[in-house]
Amino acid sequence: MTLCHSNSRRLREDPPEGVLFGMGNPLLDVSAVVDKAFLAKYGVKLNNAVLAEEKHMNMYKELAQKSSTSFVPGGATQNSIRIAQWLLQKSKATTFVGGIGKDEFGDKMERLITLEGVNVAYHEDPSAATGSCAVLVVGDERSLVAYLAAAGMYKIEHMRKSETWALVEKAQYFYSAGFFLTVSPESLMLVAKHAAATGKTFMMNLSASFVCERFKDPLMAAFPYVDYMFGNEAEAKAFGRVQGWSTTDLGRIALKMAALPKICGTHKRIVVITQGVDPVVVADNGKLLMFPVLSLPKEKLVDTNAAGDAFVGGFMAQLVFGKNLAECIRAGNYAANTVIQHLGCTFPKKPNFSY
To answer: Any idea which residues carry the catalytic annotation?
Structure first.
């Protein structure tokens, strides 16, 4: 296995406030143990993930009234920012921007994520409900019903507001899941161009195969600005297929992704592909690197849903300290290994990670 060497960034002893900026689709995860009759009532299949329809609207109200229901801030980018904040352990080291409604779920999500130390700059839309994801647990299986609502209505005007843009200017590192391209690609491009013009670091995630396929044009418009691209094996293969590359080899795909044209020459593009229990694949400056993941006894595995989000959050928490790739991936693996031992994107109050 080939390991990476430290980059030229100055090592930081203490991350400055607002150093890491995330933008995405915030959802409040509403988790509850239910029975099969509850699933049948709302037409939900066991062990399935769907977007909410009209028939599901009362389900969220019913879940909110259950005393055993738990509420956790969610959404891919917001999860990664929460994990980075958890590892950084400095209040407001991270910032998150996205759209919520002016309602009880929005208030609850803002309160929870603020308590975790994230500086949130939500756009409140009084005409829409806060996005949420019902996590319905039946035994050791779960069904997900996602309702984007206000999260899917974010507009560039909020990003351009002086108070929001001041947070952009303060940040040195930027991250967005590919899902944000389905909502406000204009906002993403505005921040990406700022990062390129100022020599800052811009990071993205492929997020899902459908992003690579159905949102190819906005993804490829953003790609020249991306310094770090994350994804999993299925997403990377989908990207390669859409590009017309005649290979399914992850290493070759990662190297090709890293070699795509880049606007800013300050940083070389680095591509990081996770593949579950198999080694993390990294393309860096024409070299292919492999990093093993942490093993976990099967009996300790609880929920893998947020593993990818957690990995990116851990990676970024080391990157803002100026650490090398090996250390960034070590933190990513630690974060993912920790989160999959809990339900949803939850974690202990304090990390047990040695810097």
So the answer is: 309
d(C-alpha 78, C-alpha 278), whole Å? 25
One DSSP character per residue, 62-119 reads HHHT-TT-EEEEESHHHHHHHHHHHHH-STTSEEEE-EEESSHHHHHHHHHHHHTT-E
* Tokens linked to 71: 């509420």
pLDDT tens-digit series, residues 159-180: 999 999 999 999 999 999 999 9
| Whether 327 contacts 291, CB under 8 Å | no
Q: Note the pLDDT of residue 47.
A: 78
Strand-strand pairing, 173-177 and 70-74: unpaired
Q: Report how far residue 307's alpha carbon sits from residue 341's, in angstroms, rounded to the nearest whole number.
A: 10
Alpha carbon distance 137, 134 (integer Å): 9
Give percent of the chain above pLDDT 70. Answer: 95
Rounded CA separation 327/324 (Å): 6
User: What is the C-alpha R_g of the chain?
Assistant: 19
Question: By C-alpha distance, which of 283, 281, 284, 285 is closest to 311?
Answer: 281
- Tell whether the model's pLDDT for residue 138 goes beyond 90: no
Assess contact for 147 and 51: CB atoms under 8 A: yes
HEC string for 253-310? HHHHHHHCCCCCCCCCCEEEEEECCEEEEEEECCEEEEECCCCCCHHHCCCCCCHHHH
Name 57's Cβ contacts closer than 8 Å, sequence gap at least 6.
none
- CA torsion angle 102 67 351 108 (round to 10): 10
pLDDT of 4 reads 31
